[in-house]
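#onboarding

Welcome to the new folks! Below is a worked example of what a typical request in this channel looks like: someone posts a single protein sequence, and someone else replies with the predicted structure as tokens. Don't worry about understanding the tokens yet, we'll cover that in week two.

Example request:
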Amino acid sequence: MQEKTFNWRNAANYGLIGSVVMLYFSMIGMVEVFSTRDLIGDFLNMGHLLLFGGAIGVMLFAAKRISDHGGDFWLSTLIIGAVSPLLPILLVIMSLNFNMRPIFINVSPPLNELITLGLEPTAVGLVAFFFVTLILVALTAAFTRLPGRIRTPLTTTIVYMLSIGIFSELIIQVLNNPLIFRGFRLAGLFFTGKSLDLIPAVVLFVGFFGLFYWRGGREPKAAVEPKTRPHLDPRRRWIQLGLIVIGLAVAPWILGLFLSQALFEVGRFVLMGLGLNIVVGYAGLLDLGYVAFFAFGAYVMGVMTTETTLNMGGGVVNFWLALPIAVGISVVFGVLLGFPVLRLRGDYLAIVTLGFGEIIRLLALSDWLAPLVGGAQGILKIPNPVFFGIDFNSPQLMYYLMVIGALIVGFVSIRLRDSRLGRQWMAMREDEDVAEAMGINLVQTKLLAFAIGAGFSGLAGAIFAARLGTIFPHSFSLLISINALALIIVGGLGSIPGVIVGAIALVGLPELLREFTEYRLLMYGILLIVMMLIRPEGFLPAEVFQRELHAGEDQPEFSGAVAD
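Example response:
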């Protein structure tokens, strides 16, 4: 059956969706809060990105459907651009005639000023807002019609420019670092406050576009088959590895104390993500109680390195002796969790593991174990690690400990993925019944997945306890498991580089944008929805997941003709 042509009603529906998104971001206060961060000069801020982002995003989605279904492209664009600003305009008109603040507290004069673009009188501002939205939608539509030779470098340039504006504070700190530039304040050449100046922004935009356009022209046509990755030259691979090692080594001293702590948090979730990636990504076992093993590692480290009722009277050990014990106990409890859930799959397994994680948290909070683990008061005065007289009492030094742990765990994960056990996990993930019929011992394979994943999480918990110096039961809530699961989904299930990218996206970026912390979970949800719609395999997926999700896309359709 032939599909219907994309008509004006479809375009109006898309415009209404964009209008609802613009209205939603305005009414929950995100537009006003994000407007405090200027990106370029004083005329483009993050509030503008959110305000107009709904219309632009809808146009990007609609452009392909218009082309696929044979609609009038520019007429549909005009309708989408005209409908998108209507609800924000209506919001401003209603707020001027009715007192909406008792019900919608975020509908405020500063919001009205943003929507009217700061123009007076209000009618002029609303007309300007309408036409600016229409022009941006038209430019977005024209962007989708550009040839790939221009569209790709232009997209990359826009992403780079937005990144510079959003993370200007980080760039300014690097440019002003006396260890690198010997006291020269280079940030003043590009930034005023946290905002990128207009002329440097134009110069950088032209420079980035020229560079990416030139690189795109120099790259030879791929001589490999589609969906395959060419192998790097060994010398080039070693050079890249060396640059990464040097970058990791000097990063904390370039970025300073706060950003070193942010990198520590990223490393902590990389450790947890690598462990959960074995359980979920390799073995296909949905574990929502993963935070329990993180808690075991942290509490074992706290109990063994501080004076409690268990070791009162000289039984305290140092960090390096307690670390393998913490990992070992986490492994033991990983096996103990594995036994009751050997026959469970999917949602049932997720519910049981979720309950296990909550039980562990409540036990740590209870008065029954308070003499051992401190109850609600937690464990205090956990000592810092000391290595050959060096006290790891700063974020920079603890960063190195976390990086070393992540590198070791990453190496082990790679070796496990390529081993016989890794292939057994993947076979079990695809179909347990077939895997068992092929001779795979499901009991042993599942227990090994739970045990190794728990050990990695326990390692992260032990380092976390030593860094913080105090631990409390509320530090081990369900949200930690959700964060770890979300980052491997966003990064790519079964992919080790994907875990790193997911941790940077979901942990590192919110740390750099702490002024917007109240909207963190909302942005998590939006990112997950967008990822599932646009790129369900994640940013850097494992090749097997990418093949499964895109199977048959490059195959010609069967026409019914029989070959001679």
